[in-house]
Amino acid sequence: MHDFDYEAPVDLDTALRFFAERNGSARVLAGGTDLIDQIRLGRYAPDLLVDIKKLPELNVLECQEGGLRLGAAVPCSEIYRNETVVSGYEALVDSCRIIGGIQVQNRASVGGNLCNSGPAADSPPSLIVLGARCVIASAQGQREVPAEEFCTGPGENVLQQDEVLIEIRFSSRPPRSGSHYRRFTPRNEMDIAVVGVGASVTLDETGERFVDARIALGAVAPTPLFAREASESLTGQPVNDETIARAAELAQQAARPIDDMRGTKEFRIHVTGVLTRRVLAAAIGRARGEEEGTRIGH
Amino acid sequence: MASTSYKVIGTRPIRHDGTDKVTGRAQFGADIQLSGMLFGAILRSPHAHARIKSIDISQAESYPGVHAVVTGTDLPEQQQKVAHLGEGDVNLYHLSQNVLARQKVLYKGHAVAAVAADDIHIAQEATQLINVEYEVLPPVLDVLEAMQDEAPVLNDDVRTDSMAGEESKDPTNVAKHYFYEKGNIEKGFEAAHVVIEREYRTSTVHQGYIEPHNATALWNQDGQITIWTSTQGSFMVRQQMADLLKLPESRIKVVPMEIGGGFGGKISVYLQPVAALLSKKSGRPVKLVMDRASVFEATGPTPGSYIRVKMGADREGKLTAAEAYVAFEAGGFPGSPVVCACMCIFACYDVPHGRINGYDVCVNKPRSNAYRAPGSTHAAFAAESVVDEICERLEMDPVEFRLKNAAQEGTRRVDGVQFARIGMKETVEAIRDSEHWKSSLEGKYRGRGIASGFWFNVGLKSSVTAMLAADGTVSLLEGSTDIGGTRASLSMQLAETLGIAAEDIKPAVVDTDSVGYNDVTGGSRVTFSTGIAVHNAGLEMRRQLIERVANIWEVKVEDVQYEDGKVRGPGGKEFTFRELAAKIHATGEPITVKGTSGSENQAGAFGTHCVDVEVDPETGKVDVLRYTIAQDCGTAIHPAYVEGQMQGGAAQGIGWALNEEYVYDEHGAMRNATFLDYRIPTCCDLPMMDTIIVEVPDPQHPFGVRGVGEVPIAPPPAALVAAIYQAVGVRMRELPASPPRLLHQILQR
Amino acid sequence: MAKKRIVTTTINGKETQFLCQPRQTLLEILRDDLALTGSKEGCSNGNCGACTVLCNGKAVNSCLILAVEAEGAEIETIEGVAPVDGLDSLQDAFLQQAALQCGICTPGFIMSAKALLQEQPDPSEEDIRFNLAGNLCRCTGYDKIVRAVQDAAAARQQV
Fold first, then answer.
1. A177-287 topology per CATH
2. Rounded-to-integer distance, Cα A206 and Cα B680, Å
3. For tag attachment on chain A, is the N or C end more exposed, with fewer CB atoms within 10 Å?
4. Looking at the domain covering B32-137+211-260+266-298, what would its CATH class be?
């Protein structure tokens, strides 16, 4: 493995200084479940790894009136182990439960999953549909970027060399909202999304009409995708098979997949439609407070 | 002898090596630590097909921390010579080239050079300093394309070795043409009411053992070489090492470490000779361990294939004729198990007229190797799928069809072999009578399929030594490496023979200097053949005990009976085994016996599987809902491990059927050389696996054992595609029936 | 080469110090420096679970943790599972159920199952399968492994 140095600062300023001084030769080490393998494979050759797990700002997990605050280093399993904190953000929990096996979930963070910026990553669609904002810090100060604008290409994102993602913020959930993330994988676990779909819906008092909806797609484009037209097509519409089918069709149109070892273009476009329907149905069920039956891998 | 009369056989004792394996103390190949040990790394070809123009190792040699660098020229040159490795033969000229490439690289991952250094990181860095100049050549990756005249030719020395008589003067990729015929095939098809002919494709798949290949070598200053490695055959490693290094076998000792799965893939040598060369050059012990990508790219997966099967049956559902064309991707060098596929493809049935053509074809993929019932799974997928279509056409129950056509004692296979007592029919009856088959399958998009499969099971040679201790226990030295519980199954056979408890046997798998010759742990042979050796050792120990006690009692040998772990003599004289053992040292020489086997051949074994699936018609995803395996095991020595073999084999077959495959890009690079994208089943992908042990004893074995390891991988793909057809009405003729492929078929319908 | 670090950690209840390069994984140090070879290397990228250890009570892949990250952590490996005078109920159940064939994956399965039973003493079959999905076994088809974990859970409930 490429040779590198290691620092584990306990305050954010020190951490940010490493990045300010290293001209891109430093990388953030959070859970390490992607990064260590990537260094082993030679994809990255950093001179310094800055372990951010000891920074208090990056370990925050709390839900206040303003909404949910999720530190960038919080491991996936901490999120679903604190289900009361994250209740209302079901899609986020769905994602955290299927990123790798338990061993990976105990290390990997949502922040790391986002910063790795894989097109097939399981958390970005959920972050997008939940309207998450990415809080980015550098020695110069902080800025916020909406989740759908964070990734810019496979393995690429808006972070500058001196910047670190420190937190992901979510607004509080409106009443009668529900969300869901689901992916298609050939195996039921330990797999990478061939297609991933997240959706969040808010219904009116009757539960029969969409007030708002957001749909996001994974693994069907160079970046996770906010399906804007599909989402907007549902606003104000009645909840029925036709409006859902129409949204699924628009989601399929938004998909720009490739053929690769994990699936064909034909397959991905078809399954985008299928999953969009299923995910919307599940999100609607949750918005209505209905009981759900879950089955591993489906 | 009915199995109920056994005291030990058929029980489920704790395996002798169990505690070490649940506490982490068992020493697997990579666990070895030696004083002064160096770590090695291999430089592998980035190209699927290229000529090596030059290799410059000077920079790597002078890198700090590096102790040795070797390339193919460090291996002695080989002539064309075939070595027999029990479960297959190997051409030493090709084997040597496969261990370290010389003139050409024939697949991505082909080993080119190796480094030994102070630690693994330095060794890996140094490999990057080796400068190899390649002339890149076009690769050929598909078996049918490789058979074309205009295809790039991999090996200049390969000509078609044909059983059908055709000759090739020019180098070719078609290394071998097998041909078998029985009866009059044309007449057979004329007599048919239904004739079905179909084409099938299967992808390259890997054994997928969790433990990567490893080898640690010490080339000692006295010229003696010791190899610590996990292998299915320590004597095969010794033989290959001796041949490749051109040394007498006596110079080489192989110490078999615990082996973390093999399934046929850990017979051929890869790292062992390289570790030895590095040790010779550095004067230090050297450890080599493959990473997972190398295991996929550079060991011996089982071939992708093209198979065409034509079968005919009369109105009553009796098979009249069967014909097969079978072409296997051997990989970079010849030697695929296509011949086994030819022999297995119609083995389940009594086929009056048959013809089989088989082709062993080189392509730019890793040199293929045995994988659990090598060739039989491909063959069963094709033939059993055609059988399923015939049953559909005849509106005949697939169980009834199989009972009507099942091979039995006296049936002659198309390749000429006549079956001894076999249990094909009994496995079908077991499925017919199972709760699973009798249950109704309800629900949309659900289907049920059955299929049968066959494996020969080999005999070959084994040796053991048994030593009586004064406390009444018996140490058992064996040379058959224990992949899945054979210490237990062998100890139980010795315990049964001696009439003592399984726990009173102390088995040890020892090195090649410490026990007589043993063939490979493969071919489902250890419990059978080493079992016979163990039984012979037990009989000899009994004979010596009787002699001894006759001496003690001063009676004739004929007047002493050995029964149930006791010796009895005239006048009610009696010693238990333990009492007698306590007297051994005081009354004569120690009792140390040997047992060997080698003249016995197994009768072959069959299995029939039944599976229920549910297909998601919108995604092509298949869920296995219920699975039942019926298999003729002769006599189950340790039923729990017999069940385990059946379950594990079926699980591998299910993975092969649904998701496992090597995905290549157009340059011949494997795109999915990880356990993430090469998808072996996880425990979320399988249901509990029900087993029905059918016992039709093999008369060749004193306890009636048949090998159980290999048969269960053969039926699953055919059973699954039959079930998928029932569920959604599409016939999958290409493996794996992965979601994209299956959905494509569903959408085309 | 980057400066070596002294790491202080607790391994199987014992305070342990080791010297490592930052690029060395916890698995590498456990196996090569501390002679704890019960944790196995099957893939080096977190897909097989053979290297599973508990880090502060949670199952992790030791191939994806740098040894320097173990500073101050409590690590438990397969070598620390058995009590002095016998076997843990999970180890016992694996033997009783014949839940291993070659045994290379067994330490990882036992560590994952141990973490599961600490959190969910009475898991359903689906819980077990879900929680063991990060551990690959190629020999058994998982049937007997799942049953062993069920048995161990039952045995623990009785204690």
1. Enolase-like; domain 1 (3.30.390)
2. 47
3. C
4. alpha beta
What are the domain boundaries of chain B?
A: 3-26+459-597, 32-137+211-260+266-298, 305-457+602-748
Contacts with C42 from chain B: Cβ below 8 Å: 210-212, 260, 292, 675
Interface confidence, given as ipTM, is: 0.98
Residue where a domain stops, chosen among C29, C61, C80: C80
Quick one: DSSP state of residue B163? Answer: S
The CB-side HSE value for A117 (13 A sphere, CA atoms) comes to 17
**Do C14 and C64 sit in the same domain of this protein?**
yes
Domain with CATH 3.30.465.10 in chain A: 5-170
- What digits encode the pLDDT tens for the residues B94-106? 999 999 999 999 9
Residue range B3-26+459-597 forms a domain whose CATH class is alpha beta
CB–CB of A189 and B682 under 8 A? yes
What's the order of all strands across the beta sheet hosting B252-256? Answer: B66-71, B111-117, B38-44, B286-289, B214-219, B225-229, B252-256
* pLDDT for A291: 79
- Residues of B with CB below 8 A from C100's CB? 18, 21-22
* CATH class for the region spanning B305-457+602-748: alpha beta
CB-CB under 8 Å, B681 with A187? yes
Cβ contact (<8 Å) for A260 and B659?
A: no
Nearest to B23 among C45, C82, C129 (CB): C82
Which one of A2, A5, A103 has the shortest CB-CB distance to C134? A103
- Considering the domain architecture, whether residues C75 and C13 belong to the same structural domain is answered as yes
CATH (residue range A5-170): 3.30.465.10
Place B3 in a pLDDT band, splitting at 50, 70 and 90: very low
Is the same domain home to C93 and C143? yes
**Yes or no, beta carbons of C130 and B263 under 8 Å apart:** no
What pLDDT digit, counting tens, does each position of B172-197 carry? 999 999 999 999 999 999 999 999 99
Asked if A4 and C23 come within 8 Å (Cβ–Cβ), the reply is: yes
Closest CA to B21 of A270, A255, C140, A81: C140
pLDDT at B600: 82
Q: Which residues of C touch A296 (CB under 8 A)?
A: 126, 129-130
**Cα angle at B447 between B444 and B451, to 5 degrees?**
175
* Strand pairing report for B505-509 and B566-569: unpaired
From chain B, pick out residues whose CB is under 8 angstroms from the CB of C106.
21-22
Q: B635-658 pLDDT, tens per residue?
A: 999 999 999 999 999 999 999 999
Q: How far is CA A184 from CA A96, A99, A200, C63, in A?
A: 15, 13, 18, 27
- Is the pLDDT at B692 greater than 90? The verdict is yes
Q: Could you report the per-residue pLDDT of A227-250, keeping only the tens digit for each?
A: 999 999 999 999 999 999 999 999
* Average pLDDT of the residues of chain A: 96
Q: Which of C18, C53, C80 is a domain's end point?
A: C80
Name the residue among B477, B460, B474 with its Cα closest to residue B515.
Answer: B477
* Distance between C80 CA and the closest CA of chain A, angstroms: 18
Q: Do C134 and A100 touch (CB under 8 A)?
A: yes
How does pLDDT run across B431-475, given as a tens digit for each residue? 999 999 999 999 999 999 999 999 999 999 999 999 999 999 999
**Do both C151 and C97 map to the same domain?**
yes
B209 interface with C at CB cutoff 8 Å: yes
Q: Is residue B333 pLDDT above 60, yes or no?
A: yes
DSSP 8-state class, residue B526: I
Over residues C103-156, the pLDDT tens digits come to 999 999 999 999 999 999 999 999 999 999 999 999 999 999 999 999 999 999
* Nearest neighbour of A106 by CB, restricted to C3, C47, C60: C60
pLDDT of residue C159: 74
Spatial contact of C66 and C74, defined as CB atoms under 8 Å apart: no
pTM of the model: 0.97
A298 to chain B: which residues are within 8 Å by CB? Answer: 616
CB distance B15–C42 less than 8 Å? no
**Minimal CA–CA distance to B329: which of B309, B287, B298, B300?**
B300
